[in-house]
Automatic annotation (TrEMBL):
Family, as annotated: Belongs to the UPF0587 family.
Keyword Metal-binding set for record: yes
Listed InterPro entries: CXXC_Zn-binding_euk (IPR008584)
Signal peptide range in chain numbering: none
Single Gene Ontology MF annotation: zinc ion binding
Keyword annotations from UniProtKB, A to Z: Metal-binding, Zinc
Name under which the protein is recorded: CXXC motif containing zinc binding protein
Tree of life domain: Eukaryota
Length: 166
């Protein structure tokens, strides 16, 4: 059993608590990444999408997982199971110390996650308490002006890591 912890890092300007819209365990938040086959090393051409709210039966087992996928090159089958409760919002303190913060834990069998994509559905709040929802990173950085705090706010230099855990 191999578990991969998705960690994120960003430059936060006058913002804190960067996380999926409904929190780190948001059942509707979509995680997009490519999968690398553990057998032949082939990387999927398109991103795979998994959400906590969607479960499927695992073939040849009684269990359920969030995704079952076959490698298009060697036909080896693998699965992805998301594990709640291991992520937390990315804070201004994390950004200032330039550390990665945990977002979601994945139990992945037969594959290895690569190329996480920051898309839409994120939220953050300014240091004065203004909430920003539906943040979309598809076109790059997030930049706004906090009228309550009378200062610019922004999110840039988004990075990720998949760390093998036990």
């Amino acid at each position: 059993m191999v578990q991969f912890l998705l960690e994120i890092k960003a430059e936060l300007e006058n913002l804190t608590n960067l996380q999926p819209q409904g929190g780190c365990d948001d059942p509707e938040f979509s995680y997009y990444f490519k999968l690398k086959c553990g057998n032949c090393g082939e990387v999927s051409q398109k991103e795979t999408c998994v959400t906590l709210s969607e479960m499927v039966d695992q073939p040849k087992s009684r269990g359920k997982v969030h995704l079952v996928q076959k490698c298009k090159f060697c036909n080896r089958e693998g699965s992805v199971l998301m594990i709640r409760g291991r992520g937390r919002p990315y804070t201004v303190e994390d950004s200032e110390t330039q550390v990665f913060g945990p977002l979601m834990l994945f139990d992945i069998r037969g594959f290895e996650p690569v190329d996480f994509v920051f898309k839409d559905g994120w939220s953050a709040e300014s240091i004065t308490g203004t909430k920003y929802d539906n943040i979309n990173f598809l076109e790059g950085d997030f930049v706004e002006y906090d009228e309550k705090g009378e200062c610019p706010v922004g999110i840039s230099e988004l990075k990720y890591n998949f760390v093998v855990t036990k």
